[in-house]
Predict the 3D structure of the following.
Amino acid sequence: MADNYDETKHFLSIADWRLPELEKLLELGAKLKNEQKAGKAHRLLEGKSLAMIFEKASTRTRMSFEVGIFQLGGQPLFISSQHSQMGRGEPIKDTARVMSRYVHGIMIRTFAQSVVEEFAQFGDVPVINGLTDLLHPCQIMADIMTVIEHKGDIKDRTIAWIGDGNNMANSWLNAAAKFGFSLRLACPEGYDPNPEILAAAKQANPDGILVTRDPKEAASGADVVTTDVFASMGQEDEAEKRLQAFQGFQVDSVLMKTAAPGAVFLHCLPAHRGEEVSEEVFESAASVVWDEAENRLHVQKAIMATLMQ
């Protein structure tokens, strides 16, 4: 992370923000959600614009940011790297400087974390991490909002992550370090989370972090069971290898029965039913994935409103 800009003027990683600031984002997201459902409009970003840069395909990220900025009174601008000068080799720092002259905020969904960091370093407007291979902070904030809605204060909860130590697992670790909840990650050998992020989370929350090879150990007594696809975007050529490595890591009804009574199931979507989660669990009463998907909209509105006003 570069040291010549204020990290809290951007939303690149949950690790960059203090707990009270994160809690304010969640409170604002809940307020915006409840008031919107009551018919109140929030034109907090009237006349402002958000550039949305996509180097990876998207459904929920694009829709939630695009609808979110519109509901706040602003204008979204969709930019595909394939159809911009970035795709022809323009340096990131040059793109960041130019875009900062046109828009009031930039959201990026890309591969390398260094891309969002370079945009924040050289641009003059807030930068939001819509997803990188390392982190997915907006999704985890939506997940935490969903847990709070269904289970109450997350600090006293146990979260079980079953599957790949990917960007979702890394961001869950960042969140556990900040919020102090118990996080158990069941990952196959060779698919652990980022070692630096894991070490930092253990240092911040030494009694609350567990990495195991046994999904039942992770899920036992958990309040939340969550997972993601076994092969993420960019890993399609590893799909068969990963299916073999992740045998026994499916979240099915047997595994859910080991969780605490009333436990909920989360998935960031899209889901490969029959692989990382069974159809029965995905469609069960424990599954709150649609609330989770909706909350992307509300928590991201809170992030944009906080950074761009």
In short: The radius of gyration is 19 Å. Strands lie at 49-54, 75-80, 105-109, 127-131, 158-162, 182-186, 209-212, 224-227, 264-267. The first strand starts at residue 49 and ends at 54.
